[in-house]
Amino acid sequence: MTALSTPGPAAPHGVTGLAGIGRVFESRLLGYRRTFRSSIFNSFLGPVLFLTAMGVGLGTYVDRAGTDSLGGVSYLAFLAPGLLAATAMQSAAFEATFPIMGGLVWQRVFHAMYATPLRPIDIALGNLAWIAFRLLLIATVFTIVTVLFGAASSPLIVLAIPVAVLTGMAFAGPIGAFSATQRTMEKFNAVFRFGITPLFLFSGTFFPVESLPLFLQPIAWLTPLYHGVALSRGLSLGTAFDDPLVMAIHLLVLVGFIVVGALAMIRTVERKLVRG
Amino acid sequence: MTDHPESADSSLIHARGLTKRYAGFTAVDSIDFDVAPGESFGFLGPNGAGKTSTMRMIACVSPITEGTLRVMGLDPHRDGSRIRAQLGVVPQRDTLDEELTTRENLIIYGRYFGLPRAEAARRADELLEFAQLAERAKDQVEPLSGGMKRRLTIARSLINEPRVLLLDEPTTGLDPQARHLVWDRLYRLKQRGVTLVLTTHYMDEAEQLCDRLVVMDKARIVAEGSPRALIEQYSTREVTELRFPAGVQETLDGQLDGIGERIERLPDRVLVYAQDGDAALAAVHARGLQPETVLVRRSSLEDVFLRLTGRSLIE
């Protein structure tokens, strides 16, 4: 048996600043290495299938009928940036439900972290940082596919990548906060069925919100996806800076959701960890 | 306990009037205890006695409701993160990352404590040896046996070279062989001077590992001392267990009176507490009683618990 008493360097201390967030992020990264290849492949396959079927296939018919209501651009060019934002939302919703429940309830890895100098705030924000990183990968791959399809009109589409990350994060915080209050995954179905899927369909991704019944339009404005889609599309089409004030409002809404969501998630994760 | 002279400075863990209340019930009701450096200290009691709640407060993951608690001289409320940096924790349920290998589990845990990667890896390899898991270093955790996972959890708790190791029911749910292996590893740690604080509802575990223990029942401490001292104080040297044929025990009214120092009736047997168990048995026979089976044994902590609470430890 080896002696364990050899003193190693630097007795560990408490956590301060951002160090704890980095350690939680590193843990998620270590777990991700196993699924990295298939995950990247999937984030390629998704946009390729969608843009082929909806953008090219369906788009041919839409374009033939005239696209004045879409701002005169091809349906593919209209759809791709919207779909980018909507995909970020979907991925964020997934990452903020099952893995959070896994860490707090199933495998309880977050409880193991809490037995170390890491604090609940490190665990909540480290996971959000991880989700942001995942979204960055997904949005980058999506944008490359979009460019390969010739669906981007402006080099500003590069900025649609961080916008997609912000859009996803506007959902990750609030949904993560909710997940941390749950003991079972029972209600996750409802989140997707009555939250994510309707938003995906009706927030301006596939058609302008203006074609919704008048009373539904304000509801669309209240959801972060509407603002993410508008920003993303403006950048991809190169029209974003025609009306900077509107773009600033879109951005502000997303940031607002992110801040409030993150604060809520810190609270609910802490409550769950303390309860045991 | 109040008659203990340790001050907050000399003891590693110091609690006075420590209380934990949840909405509607009191899990820990104003308990006092001190744990000295290098000591093995146990909380013995049945499920629901308040052991785990106490451990979670010491581990700085659950705030205290009332009273005083100092861990290594620090206040868990203010310095939780700093205290946890010097603790090793073995929770009741394993919290291993089952997607990672055993070695990765140890390394990433070291990283949580801020260890450099190379140092975390060096300690991980040592600890895998210690936990007798070196051949499983590259295996995923999920298929490991319960005993192996337990040993891995103990190895993991040592990655930061903690001053105090907190073990919440370290061997519950393990088969006897796996338990003995865990005990052996814990005994080695104890010999190296690691302070162990553990909860258990197993008598043999408490007797094997604890220098000193407190008996908890219904959120309070009902006795404190070394296993030997507790047995001397609350029990006799020996116990004679008598089992009578079905229906006979109920008809024994008063017939055993005066034998031994004390008699305890359990649903399935009668316990006669005596300094000399064989002499007590002879007295039983002399009265013409014919028990079906007889066991003369030394007193254990189980008897102490029975005496203090009137109930068995494991129902």
Reconstruct the topology from this structure:
The complex is a heterodimer of chains A (276) and B (315).
Chain A: H1 19-32, H2 36-65, H3 75-95, H4 98-106, H5 109-114, H6 120-148, H7 157-179, H8 188-202, H9 217-222, H10 224-237, H11 244-275
Chain B: E1 13-22, E2 25-35, E3 40-44, H1 51-58, E4 66-71, H2 76-84, E5 87-90, H3 102-112, H4 117-130, H5 146-157, E6 164-168, H6 176-191, E7 195-200, H7 203-209, E8 212-217, E9 220-225, H8 227-234, E10 238-243, E11 262-265, E12 270-274, H9 277-286, E13 293-298, H10 301-309
Parallel strand pairs in B: 3-7, 3-8, 5-6, 6-7
Antiparallel strand pairs in B: 1-2, 1-4, 8-9, 10-12, 10-13, 11-12
List its salient traits.
heterodimer, A: 276 residues, mainly alpha, 11 helices, B: 315 residues, alpha/beta, Rossmann fold, Alpha-Beta Plaits, six-stranded mixed beta sheet, four-stranded antiparallel beta sheet, 13 strands, 25% strand, globular, disordered N terminus
Q: How is this structure best described in words?
A:
The complex is a heterodimer of chains A (276) and B (315). With 276 residues, chain A is mainly α. Chain A has one domain. Chain A has helices spanning 19-32, 36-65, 75-95, 98-106, 109-114, 120-148, 157-179, 188-202, 217-222, 224-237, 244-275. The longest helix of chain A is centred in the last third of the chain and has 32 residues, at 244-275. The model of chain A is unreliable at 1-12 (pLDDT under 50). Chain B has 315 residues and is α/β, with parallel strands linked by helices. Chain B has 2 domains: 13-226, P-loop containing nucleotide triphosphate hydrolases (Rossmann fold), CATH 3.40.50; 236-298, Alpha-Beta Plaits. Helices cover 33% and strands 25% of the residues of chain B. In chain B, a hairpin with a 2-residue loop joins strand 1 and strand 2. In chain B, helix 3 (102-112) packs parallel to helix 5 (146-157) and helix 8 packs across helix 10 (301-309). Chain B starts with 12 loop residues before the first strand and ends in a 6-residue tail after the last helix. Chain A binds chain B through residues 1-2, 4-5, 7-15, 19, 23, 26-27, 30-31, 34, 107-109, 111-119, 273-274, 276, and chain B through 52, 56, 59, 61-63, 79-82, 84-87, 89, 91, 93, 95-100, 104, 108-109, 111-116, 119, 122-123, 126-127, 129-130, 156, 158, 160-161, 192.
